[in-house]
Amino acid sequence: MTLRTRFAPSPTGFLHIGGARTALFCHLHTRRHQGTFVLRVEDTDTERSTQEAVAVILEGLHWLGLSPDEGPFFQSHHTQRYLEVVQELLQAGHAYVCTCSKERLDALRERQRENGDKPRYDGLCRELHLPADPQRPHVIRFKTPREGETLWEDRIQGAIRISNGELDDLILVRSDGSPTYNLAVAVDDHDMGITLVIRGEDHISNTPRQIHVFKAMGWEIPDYAHMPLLHGSDGAKLSKRHGAVSVLQYREEGFLPSALNNYLARLGWSHGEQEIFTRAELEQLFDISALGRSAAIFDQAKLLWINGHHIRAATPEQLLPELAYQLTRLGVEPPPSPETLATILPEFQSRAATMVEMAQKCRFLFIDSVQPYEEKAARKHLTTAMRDPLAALAATLETLPEWTIAALESAFQSTLETFHLSMGQLAQPLRVALTGCGASPGILETLWMLGQDKSLNRIQAALDHLAARQP
Ligand code: GLU
User: Fold this and answer.
1) Does the chain have fewer CB atoms within 10 Å around its N or its C terminus?
2) What CATH number did the domain enclosing 276 receive?
3) Using a 6 Å cutoff on CB, does residue 126 contact ligand 1?
């Protein structure tokens, strides 16, 4: 049987980091076993679902490279089908009409609480065979077996058995005629031919309810794998309080999708001592059954470390969209061409732990002026004593027949000799003039990347600045 998995987010907010991990695990496991990965948007909760959330989830998945093989499918398009299944369940005696009022149910629950019993429906309408009279408010409930237990061999958690007596008579259709979550999930998992349901362990309590629907309909039950949840470093379930939890916020903070995927894959899964994985390696090695059962702890420092690795190892194609994105965020509009960015990338790749940092470091190349200068660097290096050497260097640079590292080096060296300066004595003032601050790639590379016109303009601007500062 070919493997079919699905990721089934509810569009009630952004794609959070826990959801992304579920999607990643579905995706990787599916690739490893040459299956099909389906995306299903669970938008049956019309009050809380929004189009905006759908768009953000799709964007997050796309950015992570987790786009589905099939879908997105929307549960809101399947209402008719869910109601047809309910008709079948009613006819076969697996479901029943319940007309109990809210007041009765509230009072029942109150009584049960007082007696220390678990609140649950008492089954008053279960054997009454009430008709579905549109004039009379009613819900449709599933007739949950009272005896026996529901048992499945979870691919992560091992054998799970839940006594049927623990379960309520689940509502399948609400009084407003809308189908409920557990019904919709069971019908879709069947209709979409899902063979393995991978989801968070917070859904374990739903699984027996869904299995009951499968059994009542005579459908083949899929396998289940319930993943341990993500916790923050304080041990509590991961939430906004722990920092960024939206996937797209990680993009804004300069993480690469490959690094985030690598990091998320390692949360709960390992392959020997290896920490750094390419996507291709993960697709080859990952298996959901190898996942540990304890909660995984999210550790931002490790993510940063992995990100640095991925930045250094990345191909230009992987980095260019992220660098252009970050430069745009820093106000470089329009972003430089991919060719330009590809030329300068190698100079910055080893110097940045995030793409934000990389963009900040190379921004000076793409702006019109680097003034005002970083105050401390300018005060220290851009002294009046440097006026003549900078002017002489500019004159030499202006006549250079070619703008190559070798030609720049000889121009630079001859200025050093003329003025009896050490490398650093000229390089630092020049760096401030060219970049506005005291740190950049090698000074010759910096000149080379800027090009002749920009370099000369910036040296001239520094000389003007020095002249204006003269008493
Ligand atoms: N829609 C559910 C959620 O976002 C997931 C349901 C499932 O995977 O079965 O939590």
Assistant:
1) C
2) 3.40.50.620
3) no
